[in-house]
Design a protein that fits this description.
Elements: E1 2-5, H1 7-11, H2 20-32, E2 36-40, H3 42-56, H4 62-73, E3 78-80, H5 84-97, H6 103-114, E4 117-120, H7 123-131, E5 137-139
Parallel strand pairs: 1-2, 1-4, 2-3, 4-5
Helix pairs in contact: 3-4, 5-6
């Protein structure tokens, strides 16, 4: 099985965030089951930006941020390089979602390409995507008892 994970889910593996406990538990299950994890290469820049923000707020030191990066790179997430096809797909997803930026849509484009469920801590994105029938976009901040369980391992992405 393959999954696409958002940078916010990855960051929660090494930085204490309000949803880290649930995200770490879910992540551990994925790793133990041999799930292949993917993310657009964008995740690396998003995590670096988030770490810089935490440093500027004095919530982390530079040395701690370096350790977080080491931890995240050791997770074995496969970075998917951008291609013209993926970028066009991200533009289409951003348009469908009514977004002025395509950052989140890059994850949807990768999920669509791989036929994989996309897990994020962005509840607004989850609601927005699910309102369009994208049941393969899931909230990594909720426990299985709060949802109907994990999404279908082979979601139907339609012909879009």
């Amino acid at each position: 099985m393959s999954l696409v994970v958002d940078s916010n889910v990855l960051l929660a593996q090494a930085v204490d965030l309000e949803y880290s406990v649930v995200a770490r538990r879910r992540f551990r299950v994925w790793l133990e089951s041999g799930t292949l994890l993917f993310a657009p290469a964008l995740w690396q820049y998003e995590v670096t930006s988030a770490l810089r923000r935490l440093i500027s707020r004095r919530e982390l030191t530079s040395k701690q941020a370096d350790a977080v990066l080491d931890t995240l790179y050791a997770l074995g997430v496969e970075s998917v390089a951008p291609t013209p096809e993926l970028q066009r797909s991200a533009l289409r997803w951003a348009e469908r979602l009514g977004r002025s930026k395509a950052y989140d849509s890059a994850y949807l484009a990768v999920g669509e390409r791989l036929g994989a469920t996309f897990w994020t801590a962005d509840r607004h994105l989850v609601r927005n995507a699910q309102s369009l029938g994208l049941d393969w976009v899931q909230d990594a901040t909720t426990t299985d008892s709060e949802t109907s369980g994990d999404a279908d391992p082979e979601p139907d992405h339609g012909d879009d």
